[in-house]
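Researcher: Let's do a round of design. I'm pasting the structure tokens now; please hold your answer until I've finished.
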């Protein structure tokens, strides 16, 4: 009888303290996550571009998704629709988040048409179409770490993540776990294809979430950066 009386509170104590011990075990390492890689540093400001109404656009102090929809953005509106539904709608309202789409001056009319199609339900408060010269658009594109050249119509299916310090973010090593185990050659992901729904939903959404987490931890003062810069893997000859 005495043994039974002792066993009951002992079991209850164990059941109570086990979760607490588990949380204490996890606590010291809760901030030890991998940050989103810097694939290229010091992206120049978009000084020569103007938004509608003549206002300037800025990369600094913003978390920016930068895109290039070319001379005829309405020719393939799927690119913008995918970006809105799978990225913009998910992160709109987050502190300092913005999407900037660079277009030539000749695309202003089509940009208005595309804007009407995109904001049929609500205003695009964090989405900006910015206009510049052909040379300015080409320069802005080549200032980035890119996988493919800009098309002759000044369009690209790729979008780019730029952080508050104007560093381009992405993945220096985009291999899967299985590929790493098989010593598959390293390949990077400096940008995200807006026509690949799975890429936007899985990889880009996850990378944006990681970046927002990084800045949230910085604001709280408990962030320990382990971010790798592009130079860290130069010897691996990432293209």
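Researcher: That's everything. Go ahead.
Model: Designed sequence:
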């Amino acid at each position: 009888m005495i043994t039974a009386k002792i066993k009951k509170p002992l079991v209850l104590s164990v059941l109570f303290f086990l979760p607490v011990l588990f949380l204490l075990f996890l606590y010291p390492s809760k901030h030890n996550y991998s940050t989103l890689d810097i694939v290229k540093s010091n992206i120049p400001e978009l000084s020569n571009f103007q938004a509608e109404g003549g206002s300037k656009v800025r990369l600094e102090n913003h978390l920016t998704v930068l895109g290039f929809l070319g001379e005829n953005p309405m020719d393939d509106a799927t690119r913008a629709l995918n970006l809105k539904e799978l990225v913009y709608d998910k992160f709109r309202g987050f502190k300092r988040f913005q999407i900037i789409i660079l277009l030539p001056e000749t695309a202003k009319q089509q940009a208005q048409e595309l804007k009407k199609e995109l904001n049929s339900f609500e205003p695009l408060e964090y989405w900006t179409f910015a206009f510049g010269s052909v040379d300015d658009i080409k320069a802005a594109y080549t200032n980035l770490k890119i996988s493919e050249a800009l098309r002759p119509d000044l369009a690209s299916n790729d979008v780019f993540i730029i952080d508050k310090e104007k560093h381009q973010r992405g993945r220096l090593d985009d291999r899967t776990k299985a590929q790493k185990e098989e010593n598959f050659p390293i390949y990077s992901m400096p940008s995200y294809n807006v026509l690949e729904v799975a890429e936007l939903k899985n990889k880009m959404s996850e990378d944006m979430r990681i970046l927002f987490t990084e800045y949230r931890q910085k604001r709280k003062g408990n962030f320990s950066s382990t971010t790798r810069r592009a130079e860290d893997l130069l010897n691996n000859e990432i293209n």
